C-alpha cells in the first residue's frame, strides 16, 4: 500500500501517470472532429479530395470548435482528478484571482507579444520571410473583426487548457514528488511530446517546445499562479496566428498580415510548421527566461527564492 498510497490518497506520481492518458483522449476527440469535417468535405465535393494540403483546408471555425472541446475535456478531467484523487479544489491549481494576477497577466501578454513581434520583424529584415499582402485587401471590416475574435477565442482556449494540464495538474503533482527541477523537466518533455502529431514535427521542434514548457513552468514557479504562463501562451499563439498569416503550419491560417516564407530551412524559419522551430529560435525561450528572472529579482513578479528556496 505504501508504494501506491500515502495518508489514504494515491501518491502524486501515480496520479500523473493516470492523468496523462486521460487528458490524452483530447487528441482522440480532435481527430474525430477533423475526420468528420474531412468526410463532410468529401461528400460535399462529390468524393473528390481537396486540391490543396489538408491542414490548410481546415477553416478557423473547426479549429475553434476543437480548442473549445479540448478545453472542456481538460477542465472536466482535471476537475475529476482534483476531486477524487487530490481532494482539493480545481481553482487552487493557480486560477484563483489572488493579489498580482492582473499584473502577471498584463506582463505575460506584453512579454510574449513583444518577443513574437520582434522575431517576425527580424525574420522579415534578414530576408527569411516577406510580406505578400494583408487581410483587409480581400475582406470586409466585419469579417476581419470576427476573424480576429475567432483567433482570440482559439488562442485563449488552447492557453487555458494546456496550462491547466501541464503547468497545473502535471507539474504541481510532480513538485510533490521530488526536486522542482525534475518536475519541470518531466512536465516539459510531456508537453513537447503531446505536439508530436503536428504536421512536419521534427526533433528541433521537440527541443524548442520542451524549452518553452520549461519557461512556462518557471513562470508558474515564480508566481505560484497560472495567470502568467496562460498570458504568455495566449500572446504567443494570438500574435503568431491572428496577426501574421504564415502558411504551411497545420494550424489556423487567415491572420491580418500575409507572410511568405522565403528561406525554408531548419537554421532560420524551420520546416513546414513555420517559425519558432529554427536553431535561431532556440534562443527565444532563453531570452524570455532571463527577462522573467530579472523581473523576479526586481520584485516585479515575486522573488525567485519564494518560500526560502530557489524555484529550480
Commentary on this structure:
The protein has 312 residues and is mostly helical. The chain has one domain (5-306). 61% of the residues lie in helices and 5% in strands. It is built from 9 helices and 5 strands; from the N terminus they run ββααααβααααββα. It has helices at residues 12-44, 54-57, 60-86, 101-125, 141-174, 180-193, 203-223, 227-243, 283-297; strands at residues 5-6, 9-10, 129-134, 244-245, 257-261. The strands form 2 sheets. A 3-stranded mixed beta sheet has the order 3-5-4. A two-stranded antiparallel sheet has the order 1-2. Helix 7 crosses helix 8 and helix 7 (203-223) runs parallel beside helix 9 (283-297). The protein is globular, with a radius of gyration of 20 Å. It starts with a strand and ends in a 15-residue tail after the last helix. The model is unreliable at 49-56 and 303-309 (pLDDT under 50).
Write a concise synopsis of the structure shown.
The protein has helices spanning 12-44, 54-57, 60-86, 101-125, 141-174, 180-193, 203-223, 227-243, 283-297; strands at residues 5-6, 9-10, 129-134, 244-245, 257-261. The protein is mainly alpha-helical and 312 residues long.
Query: What is the count of helical runs?
Result: 9
Model regions low in confidence, pLDDT < 50 over at least 5 residues: 49-56, 303-309
Portion in helices: 55-70%
Outline type = globular
Widest beta sheet: strand line-up: 3-5-4
Radius of gyration: 20 Å
SS-based class: mainly alpha
Give the termini separation.
30 Å
- Largest beta-sheet details: 3 strands, mixed
What amount of the residues lies in strands? Answer: 5-15%
Number of domains: 1
Q: How many strand segments?
A: 5
One letter per element, helices H and strands E, the order comes to EEHHHHEHHHHEEH
Q: Kindly state the mean pLDDT as a whole number?
A: 83
Amino acid at each position: 500500500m505504501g508504494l501506491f498510497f500515502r495518508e489514504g490518497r494515491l501518491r502524486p506520481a501515480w496520479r500523473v501517470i493516470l492523468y496523462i492518458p486521460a487528458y490524452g483522449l483530447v487528441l482522440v476527440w480532435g481527430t474525430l472532429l477533423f475526420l468528420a469535417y474531412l468526410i463532410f468535405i468529401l461528400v460535399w465535393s462529390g468524393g473528390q479530395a481537396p486540391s490543396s494540403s489538408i491542414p490548410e483546408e481546415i477553416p478557423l471555425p473547426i479549429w475553434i470548435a476543437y480548442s473549445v472541446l479540448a478545453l472542456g475535456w481538460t477542465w472536466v478531467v482535471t476537475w475529476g482528478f482534483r476531486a477524487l484523487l487530490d481532494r482539493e479544489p480545481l481553482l487552487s491549481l493557480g486560477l484563483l484571482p489572488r493579489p498580482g494576477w492582473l499584473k502577471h497577466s498584463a506582463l505575460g501578454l506584453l512579454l510574449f507579444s513583444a518577443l513574437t513581434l520582434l522575431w517576425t520583424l527580424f525574420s522579415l529584415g534578414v530576408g527569411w520571410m516577406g510580406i505578400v499582402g494583408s487581410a483587409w485587401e480581400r475582406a470586409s471590416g466585419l469579417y476581419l473583426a470576427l476573424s480576429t475574435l475567432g483567433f482570440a477565442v482559439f488562442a485563449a482556449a488552447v492557453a487555458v487548457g494546456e496550462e491547466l494540464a501541464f503547468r497545473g495538474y502535471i507539474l504541481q503533482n510532480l513538485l510533490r514528488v521530488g526536486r522542482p527541477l525534475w518536475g519541470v523537466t518531466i512536465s516539459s518533455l510531456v508537453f513537447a511530446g503531446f505536439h508530436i502529431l503536428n504536421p512536419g514535427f521534427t526533433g528541433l521542434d521537440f527541443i524548442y517546445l520542451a524549452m518553452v514548457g520549461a519557461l512556462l513552468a518557471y513562470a508558474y514557479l515564480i508566481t505560484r499562479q497560472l495567470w502568467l504562463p496562460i498570458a504568455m501562451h495566449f500572446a504567443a499563439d494570438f500574435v503568431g496566428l491572428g496577426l501574421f498569416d504564415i502558411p504551411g503550419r497545420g494550424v489556423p491560417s487567415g491572420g491580418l498580415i500575409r507572410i511568405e516564407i522565403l528561406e525554408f530551412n531548419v537554421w532560420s524559419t524551420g520546416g513546414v510548421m513555420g517559425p519558432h522551430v529554427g536553431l535561431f529560435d532556440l534562443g527565444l525561450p532563453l531570452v524570455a527566461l532571463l527577462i522573467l528572472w530579472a523581473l523576479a529579482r526586481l520584485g516585479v513578479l515575486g522573488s525567485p527564492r519564494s518560500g526560502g528556496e530557489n524555484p529550480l
